Amino acid sequence: MIRPLLNQQGRRLICSDPNALAEKEELSIELTYRTEGDYQIPNLTLATEKAIPLGKYARLRKRHLKQHRRILYTNLLTTCTLNRHLAEIDQTANERMELLSAQMVRQQGIMETLKATDQMRWVGLMNNIKQAAEEVVLSELIYA
């Protein structure tokens, strides 16, 4: 259930986060309007979410949600869980990249001796592994 809250400027907030509602429960709610043309529009704003620095995979996920999954994006935004979701996706994607890369290196038998003897071949193999792991992460986590 979405219940209105007021911020310091007297504007109405919309957030269905129960923790935010519990903290602001004692506020009396008075709806204010602004005039735009011939219409009275309510002063509604979203509750502010704690800013979290977004990594590569979080930014990709956010762009995908905005462009292709608009309803999910709007639901995450209005429930004040978008940043938390993006941080979880970014952390999971980075962990999965490390895990897949390490498994592929072991599976293909790439050793540090190859790095010492034939650097260009080692770099090529490592780039292939990184791209393959990133393709799996993007298809399973980011664009799912």
Structural class: alpha+beta
Q: Radius of gyration in whole Å, from Cα?
A: 23 Å
β-sheet strand percentage: 5-15%
How are strands sequenced across the largest beta sheet?
1-2-5
Largest sheet: 3 strands, mixed
Brief overview:
With 144 residues, the chain is an alpha+beta fold.
What do these coordinates show?
This protein has 144 residues and is an alpha+beta fold. The chain contains 6 helices and 5 strands, in the order ββαβββααααα. The strands form 2 sheets. Strands 1-2-5 form a 3-stranded mixed β-sheet. It has a two-stranded antiparallel sheet with strand order 3-4. Strand 3 and strand 4 form a beta hairpin.
Task: Explain the layout of strands and helices.
Blueprint (H helix, E strand, L loop, with lengths): L2 E4 L5 E4 L2 H7 L8 E4 L2 E4 L1 E3 L9 H13 L1 H9 L3 H27 L3 H6 L1 H24 L2
Parallel strand pairs: 2-5
Antiparallel strand pairs: 1-2, 3-4
Give the key terms:
single chain; 144 residues; alpha+beta; 2 domains; three-stranded mixed β-sheet; two-stranded antiparallel sheet; 6 helices; 5 strands; 60% helix; disordered N terminus
